[in-house]
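Run log, item B.
One chain of 254 residues. Sequence copied directly from the ordering sheet:
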Amino acid sequence: MVVRESHIPLYIQIEEELRGSIRSGELLALAQVPSEADLSDRFRVSRMTARKALDRLVGDGLIFRQPGKGTFVAPPKISHGPSQSLSFSAAMRAQNIAFETRVLEAGLVHAPSNIAAALSLPVDGGVVFMRRLRMVEGEPSALHVSYLPARYSILLEADLTGSLSELVAGVGARIESTRDTIEAVIARGDEARVLGVSVGSPLILIQGVAYSASREPLRYTESMYRGDRWRFMLDTTRPAADFRPERKMDENGS
């Protein structure tokens, strides 16, 4: 119900009612949301007002549109940290989220020039290559591509569906730090196909190099996460060196 005498615009009242239905579970994930026409009739507003309410929920990622099919409640986004030092497997287990890893490719390849530079290796030298698809709750959700120095080729004999960080630690190459970048990109042909999204869909790309305690490069990884399924959390602490005590004011306020 909307209150026409309220100072709150009608489209926001409709938005909040739909938002409440999603939060309460009345509208479950992937449930169809009432159409603009349905909302217009239900609340006795114009279709433009109804569309504006839906647009705001789409913008917040709570619902999504499928052309020719309708508008649906978006599945809740999965929380993860943006650092490549974090184990994907451990993070999913900690949240009790069902997942599996599918190894798409794995083997020894010649190192591309940018990978060789990142790992401080000779150009065209051999590197271990892995391309793995992360399935979450039965749906393609992330694509991880990793390169390691060829001296770790024994990993190719291991089960690559688990934590790569744990496998690397098992051969004496414990990861102690990473240097990562994160940016928004769009899905290209093969990436879109593997991740089950349309070409041009938003992805979150994290690239990083993992290092040993002695700052030896151990692994280079590019991870692409579906923008409609993931959100990344940052937990930062202000460095002590940046602390500046507030200057006490004198009686004149200066």
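Observations after the first pass:
- The first strand starts at residue 32 and ends at 33.
- The longest helix spans residues 10-24.
Flagged for discussion on Thursday.
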